[in-house]
Amino acid sequence: MNKKQLRLTYSEKRKKLDGTLRKPLLEKIIQELPNFNLSQKHVSIYLTIADKNEIDTQDIILFIQKQGGIPVVPKANFQTGALSHYVYEGIEQLELNEYGIPEPNYGKVINANQMDLVIVPLLIFDHLGHRVGYGKGFYDRFLQECNPSTLKIGLCDFEPVDHITDVNNQDIALDFCITPKKTYSFNL
Questions:
Q1: Nearest alpha carbon to residue 180 among 60, 71, 31, 46
Q2: In a designed cystine with 83, which of 16, 74, 79, 100 is the match (CB 3.0 to 4.6 A)?
Q3: Whether 115 contacts 172, CB under 8 Å
Q4: Is 136 exposed, middle or buried, given 0-12, 13-18 or 19+ CB atoms closer than 10 A?
């Protein structure tokens, strides 16, 4: 299927998930993250958009901090399509933007090329590590600015599809994707 078809299908599937079905994914994430040696590393992690029924990343942010990592959260510029990133200081730093997305309203800015690891939002992925997001391209542009050694890890409620038919040169593949059943590794 192409990205548009997959986006529609998996948006609907994710809307139907409830909290009890999410617990295995959160447990798997917490089990797997220490394998990436987070100590003193800048870890970009998206903030949960409640309306999209995304996995709650607040516990993951706290876990990154406990592991000695430095969580970094995004702020979107809808005019330019760019993301800026701020060191996470606490929930009081966040406010909802006009689209209902939580974003930092102050903090130390971290450039894309300083990221050691990026936890990438997605709806679904394929066996080659290509992903389908929301279609605005924010993360594709951001990942192109990252250092080539930056690890890219997706979090997904679902197992991969066989193939995304309309992948292009702007799409940056994941290095890993954590699902409730398995952690997939790509391009390593």
A1: 31
A2: 74
A3: no
A4: exposed
- In this structure, what token pair is assigned to residue 124? 């679904």
pLDDT per residue as tens digits for the range 19-39 = 777 788 888 888 998 899 999
So where are the chain's domains? 3-70+114-185
**In terms of CATH architecture, what is 3-70+114-185?**
3-Layer(aba) Sandwich (3.40)
**Tens digit of each residue's pLDDT (9 = 90 or more) over 109-133:** 999 999 999 999 999 999 999 999 9
Count other C-beta atoms under 10 Å from residue 132's C-beta.
Answer: 26
Task: Give 94's pLDDT tier (boundaries 50, 70, 90).
Answer: very high
The tokens of 181 are what?
A: 């059943």
pTM over 0.70: yes
CB distance 177 to 125 below 8 Å: yes
